[in-house]
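INFO  loader      accepted 1 record
INFO  loader      residues=159
INFO  predictor   begin
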Amino acid sequence: MNELSSIGAKGFWCGCAALGFAILFNTPARALVAIWLVGFVAGIAKFAFLDASVGLGIIGSTLIAAFFVGVFSNPLSKLRSVPDIVIAIPSLIPLVPGVFAYRAMMGLIKLARYDEQHYSSIISDTIYNGVMTLFVVCAIVLGLLLPLTILRKIKTFGV
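INFO  predictor   done
INFO  writer      dumping tokens
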């Protein structure tokens, strides 16, 4: 039960982060509840699939969470009379791999100092963090674009 409440708390804070970014970017007030809800669902999905018992990893769990953002932002955008991107983009912000990007940039700064003793360790860590950043960002893009594209095609063809 403790793990479930921890995942719920992390989902709550992901929803709050999404809401904060929405307010920061002057999103219409009618969309704020939907943004918090989609950010919450994305946080729940990410941390539930990231759990050790599931073992999906950061890339797979982010892909699934971004997929949920795409699926839920489309109908909620119609209810709130805003474009689906208005709900989707702030809800994706908590999924951005900030730690990996930070570590990659710090590794590049350390490489500029050229420490011969630890050079190979620094370069391998920097490449790892840069590649993880790239893959997580690609998972976010793919996870969002798939449902939004499919839902738009269904709407276009009237299926």
